[in-house]
């Protein structure tokens, strides 16, 4: 018999009403009731939600694509299913299951990108905390086909950040054409995506050059298994230092997670012949600058990598559940979201911030 849950009428939620208005945290936002759920929908009571740089962009409205307003942001939620819409058929999950809510809230599974395994680029996609309300609330509505089962062996607060940051860097490394023993450069290595990228790369047998700034980030990156550290504010010649650190030939790949255009500008110069540039970090407004002559003569591959599909999500979580990847995070209440945004904007967040939805 399915467990029974008491579902309140209202909940605590953080709401962006307009991009220039202060973030509003309320305790009287309506909770969608079980009888209101459409077939295929489910209601998830959240334990926690990670905070991502994408949430900051949605809040500021500085991307080329605009989020819906008003908006409840967030797309790294973990909790339990407390209700499923009536007449839902063949649900892959059941009431009581621990699941994750990720960036890709819904994909049609029938358009060309979906059929080719790029469901994150679905022509009819819906995105948590951007085109539909997300996880900066105590309850969230999602689709039974697109919530992600959370495996045993990983705490909810750790799983939260894997659902976006982990999936994103895991897929980028997976498709970087690298092999065991290859060198990979990770600009932004001490940040939310970057510190997970270090661990996934090490788990895949790669040799990591971590690029970031500050003693605290250096300590974290080296602790996680990076072989080389380069502080981009202290180096006099970033390209030269990276080439010297990678046996004098340059890196086999670079996964750029930093959310600024400058991090991409020199990648072509420090990649070796046949190297791959994985474009991941999303600055608000920036162009990808690449020297065409050397991109061609060095046979460089440039690949845009956008989060991940449902299979990538399960693989990334399974690796973490086996203890190969740990998310370093600070647990804070929902009321700390505004100050977290400030820290992200200033580049001062080490690791991740996870919000406790039970407080």
TrEMBL record:
Cofactor: Zn(2+)
Spans through the membrane: none
Domain Enoyl reductase (ER) stretches: 18-355
Record's keyword terms, sorted: Metal-binding, NAD, Oxidoreductase, Zinc
Pfam families assigned to the protein according to its UniProt record, in alphabetical order: ADH_N, ADH_zinc_N
Enzyme class: oxidoreductase
Keyword Mitochondrion part of the UniProt annotation: no
Any one GO molecular function term: metal ion binding
Organism superkingdom: Eukaryota
SMART domains: PKS_ER
Family matches, as InterPro entries: ADH-like_C, ADH-like_N, ER, GroES-like_sf, NAD(P)-bd_dom_sf
GO CC entries: cytoplasm
Protein's UniProt keywords contain Zinc: yes
EC number of the protein: 1.1.1.1
Family as reported in the entry's similarity comment: Belongs to the zinc-containing alcohol dehydrogenase family.
Protein name in UniProt: alcohol dehydrogenase
């Amino acid at each position: 018999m399915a467990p029974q849950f008491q579902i309140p009428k209202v909940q605590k939620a953080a709401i962006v009403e307009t991009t220039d208005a202060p973030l509003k945290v309320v305790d009287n936002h309506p909770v969608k009731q079980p009888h209101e759920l459409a077939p295929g929908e489910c209601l998830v009571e959240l334990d926690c939600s990670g905070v991502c740089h994408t949430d900051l962009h949605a809040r500021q409205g500085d991307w080329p694509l605009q989020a819906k307003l008003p908006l409840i942001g967030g797309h790294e939620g973990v909790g339990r299913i407390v209700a499923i819409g009536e007449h839902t058929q063949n649900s892959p999950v059941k009431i009581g299951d621990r699941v994750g809510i990720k960036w890709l809230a819904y994909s049609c599974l029938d358009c060309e990108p979906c059929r080719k395994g790029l469901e994150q680029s679905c022509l009819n996609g819906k995105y948590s905390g951007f085109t539909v309300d997300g996880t900066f609330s105590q309850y969230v509505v999602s689709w039974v086909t697109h919530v992600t089962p959370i495996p045993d062996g990983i705490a909810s607060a750790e799983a939260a950040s894997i659902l976006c940051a982990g999936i994103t860097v895991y897929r980028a490394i997976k498709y970087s054409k690298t092999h065991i023993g290859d060198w990979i450069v990770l600009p932004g290595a001490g940040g939310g995506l970057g510190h997970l990228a270090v661990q996934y790369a090490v788990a895949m047998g790669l040799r990591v050059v971590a690029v970031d700034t500050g003693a605290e980030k250096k300590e974290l990156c080296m602790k996680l298994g990076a072989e080389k550290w380069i502080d981009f504010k202290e180096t006099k010649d970033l390209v030269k230092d990276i080439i010297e650190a990678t046996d004098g030939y340059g890196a086999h790949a670079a996964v750029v997670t930093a959310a600024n255009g400058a991090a991409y500008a020199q990648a072509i110069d420090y990649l070796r012949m046949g190297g791959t540039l994985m474009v991941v970090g999303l600055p608000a407004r920036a162009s990808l600058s690449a020297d065409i002559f050397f991109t061609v003569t060095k046979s460089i591959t440039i690949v845009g990598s956008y989060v991940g599909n449902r299979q990538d999500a399960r693989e990334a979580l399974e690796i973490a559940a086996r203890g190969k990847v740990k998310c370093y995070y600070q647990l804070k209440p929902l009321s700390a979201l505004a100050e977290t945004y400030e820290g992200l904007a200033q580049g001062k967040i080490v690791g991740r911030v996870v919000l406790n939805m039970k407080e």
